[in-house]
Amino acid sequence: MAFLSRRMDGPQDHHEQRAGIAYLDTRTLGAQIHEVATGPGSAFGMIALAGLALAVPALAPFTLPIAGAFTAYVLTRPLILPLRLPANARQKDQNNPVAHPRRQGVDVPGPATGDWFLGWEETTGQQLWLSNDDMAMHTILPGSTGWGKSQTIYSLLCNALAQGSGCMIVDGKGSNNLVFSVKMMARRWGREADVRVINMLVSSGDRKSHTWGAFSGVNPEGLSELLLTIFLPEDKSGGGGSSAYFRDRAESLIRSMSSIWVWMRDHAGIPITSESIRASLSSIQSLIDLVGTDAGPSVERVFSYYDLDSQSLRTMPLPEAFPLPLLDPVRSYVNETGGFSSSKGGVDSQDKVREQHSYVVGGFAKAFTQMGSTLGHIFRCGLPGVDFQDIFYNRRILVVVLPSLENHPETNASLGRMTITAQRYALAPALGTSLEGDYVDLVVNRPSSAATVYPIVYDELGMFVTRGLDVMMAQARELNVGITISFQEVGTMYAALGRDRVVPLLGNPKLKIFGQIEDSAPTKEWLESTGGTMQVSVLPGYESSPTLGVYSGMDRADIREIKRISWSDVQSLRSGQAIILFRGKRIYTRLFYAGIKPSGYNRLHPLLTLRTVPAGLERPEAQAIRAGQDIPGRGFQSAPDPILDAIHARMAQIVDTDDPVRNDIRSLFGADIPGAGTQYFAALFRGVRSVSLPKVDTRVTLLARKENAALYESMVALELLNYDAESQTRSRVARLINALPHLHARKRKG
């Protein structure tokens, strides 16, 4: 039976020019010899000279000087690695040029600063090191599923933990495996107690997570931006008309209320939660009660909030110290809503007012439900367990797990954008606002200053990329923060932000680690444009031999411009292999593998739960302290001694001054204190009443039976840990042991 062969018109594997066979090495002979002499192959020359000297001893006088000169060259030549020298090399690094201290425009080799180990160069096996300053210029890590992005990220972060720093990971498609891996990584350096987890995975019903109050420490501007990110995501439809009108009204309302919420948080002790925000916004009657009348006192204005202890809505009058100008924007909003007028009666009789207000706040319901119900175990808290400023400045480890399968992509992206916005405003105070003062105190010793960089990793960034991240990357280097963004392809980011906004975001990082990529459309175009082009010498073609029928290369070389990164090389990369671009260098790399394999039992370290007491629910003790009844001379306290009173008065004058210590001492004790003479300290105790000490039982009890001596000594040693007197302790223990036989006798009779 005959079989039909398949027809294939396309090129086969044996037709393809691979392994760079068409590229020619057109360097000079001296350059090629220098490369061989300085590479690993230089040892063969020494072996050949040694073999020649053994085979022909008469040539030893000629080979020994050559071998000695070559050895001296090898020992004295500068060590040059592809990137940086490791810091423990303790020698000058040719790849770290610094300005000459006395000659302008002249660079000299700087010290070795390599602190981050990336891997090895593929062809030479040389190590690849980067400094903390290099890592603060940010990193890009693209790679398709299965290439090994997660292990590459863990290996990078091990460098940070090994230097005593922390890290932060935000995973757009996280799972509990990420938490186990990070805990295993932290366990290597004894940092398990520093790990914080914001776990938004709730589908299994196990809601284990640390609490996070995104609004607990931001200023009014930061709070308004966070709320706008949550409640009013960017409108991609570009719709106008009434939709845009009510959107602008909602933004105005949020910005107006942000200052009030922050003031009540800082001065009245009311935490900002989604429930309290809902209590203030959902009903326009709450806003009307808040603004009151123009001439009315603060106590007639009522603030609505949610009490976490009683799990109910409550109200409280505004404190007397509340700045009334903060209410003006809210009052304007109320008056502009549906033609509201207090002369028309209550809001129940003004249907249009309630209708228009419902249009403004109606879109907030989804976010309120998400934060108050679905993720209530994270956001419903007074004082949160996770504070981003604490994470950044104290170098802790934070893992944020976003639920990619549970939520709608827009909901997941909103949570990620809220996280990034909260990070931005947590870093903002480190930039400083004071323009007068010592440079070292205000700039050099910022809260974020440290010898090591603090890495932030955004894994699967395309799922939650947001505007403002490029600005954060531009300023993060000054704050000693290095950002690593990881993704599979750039198409999702183009769709989320637009091409014009993604290009500067991807163009900022200096270090680019390209893994295996499959997307041959926009990602390939971006990769090739990022890698740039280079001019190479290539074989122009082949000539056939008429006699033998074979092909031989032409006797000339052409110069052509090609892509520096071959797409076939990128697609053929395996796990642990990458192509690195850094400062114009392209390096084929074998990446460092830290071997992070999660195992064992994992648990979240519980944090102390704290809550603030709202000002309207103060305890009597707090009210007495606020009224000053704890001060001597007021309330139940007796009048102070005149000497102590004079010192207290002088301390009140110097406590708010920035004078040197000498001036404070002079202000405190410079003038005579009435009735004290020169014995200031002793004068404070002249009027102290005598204290009657409690009576102490001085009877001595001895141990009755010597066989109980071991028990007696053990109990005495235990009781002495309470810092009791030894004689009294021994008597007390002896009485107890002596009474034991009587207790046993009573039990037998019973």
Quick structural gist:
The chain is α/β, with parallel strands linked by helices. Helices cover 40% and strands 14% of the residues.
Can you characterise this structure?
The structure is a single chain. It is extended and about 115 Å long. Helices cover 40% and strands 14% of the residues. With 750 residues, the protein is of the alpha/beta class. The longest helix is centred in the middle third of the chain and has 27 residues, at 242-268.
Approximate strand percentage: 5-15%
Class by alpha and beta content: alpha/beta
Uncertain regions: pLDDT < 50 for 5+ in a row? 688-693
Overall pLDDT, averaged?
81
N-to-C terminal Cα separation, in Å? 108 Å
The biggest beta sheet, please? 11 strands, mixed
Shape: extended
CATH level-two architecture of the domain at 137-210 and 395-539: 3-Layer(aba) Sandwich
Q: Give the number of helices.
A: 29
Number of strands: 19
Helix content: 25-40%
The CATH topology of the domain at 137-210 and 395-539 is what?
Rossmann fold
What's the name of the CATH homologous superfamily of the domain at 137-210 and 395-539?
Answer: P-loop containing nucleotide triphosphate hydrolases
What would CATH call the class of the domain at 137-210 and 395-539?
Alpha Beta
Which value, in Å, is the CA radius of gyration? 38 Å
> Strand order within the widest sheet?
4-3-19-18-13-5-12-11-6-10-7
